[in-house]
Amino acid sequence: MQQKIGTTLKWTGLALAYAAASGCGGGGDSGNGGNTPNTKLVAVIAGIAHNYTSSEISIASAKAPYDIVEGYAGSDKSDITVAAYGDSFYRIGKFNQDNISKYGYDSPGAPDWQFSTDDDGTSLSNPYEMVFVSDSKAYVLRYGSSSIWVVDPSVALNDEAHFKTAEIDLSSYDDDGKPEMAAAAIFNGKLYVIMQNMDASFAPGTAYLAVIDVATNQEVNISGGDQKGLALNIKNPHTIIIQGGKLYIAGLGRYDSTYSDPPRPAEYTGGIEVVDPDTYNHYILVDDGDNITHPYGLITGMAIVSDTVGYFRGYEGAEKATLYRFNPTSGTVVASVIPGTTSVDIRAIAASPYGELWFGIGGANPDLVIANTSTETVIKTIGVNKNPDRIVFADVKD
Hints:
The protein is mainly beta.
């Protein structure tokens, strides 16, 4: 296990170790980007206790020797996620927390600010994701609310009144006014938002893709009808990734439930859908099957390395999943041969800008695993305090 440390001194040591390994001011990289001159690439990881009693954030160097420091933003709440941009990372407190906390890498032991994401007089906004345009503009997706918040993350601790700068209403997509916006990505001046559209029993309805003009914060009518967004073929979307000028959207359908009366089987209405952002033509690239034949299980996570290499997590049951490799161009799917990725508790999966796959293995003694996607071999396994639940990468000033 790595030592739990939350001081500026120890983070500075991690940064120096990274610089020694990669060289300050190293060049760029392929894939999703890479560190630019005078920056270093780090991974920010949300860790969740195996018994869901606590959470924390870890920061790791994204290049060998992959030094990691754990123990930031510790909490007795487990429903969190993370975001990162510029010289800050963000703890997003989801259900029954409804807040966002900003931390600087130079002083990660205490937040710069913590602001609510609730509307006046209401609660349970349940923020799911924060997507950045710049240091002073970001979008907050609120799963339990009807609107996206446009926010200014650069405001000071005593200036919460100016944190929210605008709202984007998406209430028309769901009868209850809450379309369950789950993830988003920005590409060519547009914000692409996926919505799950759940009913009162959390059965997924028709999922939608909404498109927002980043310059005006106005929704673009891409359907030509009253409902401006694009109706998707898959249900319950949870991940959207831009690769090769296309949008890749993964959906899981619906989990089974042993608590229902009678017990409810899984619904295989998910998969991986591709959308052309120029024409909005779209099609299912990877089908998760049906109630009789479903070779991968439910598709509950996705990462894309290149136009020809991607991975998804095939959920088989509680704490059991298998990692699959797919070709984002052809749709060909094979079981990954990365060791230790068959019928185990695979957690977050993410593609590093260096072309590596990072993923978590959950359990009482969880691991963070870094794999070479060319040879499908494990580069390093790091024992961590908590199950890695989300991994994001960011360039930080060196």
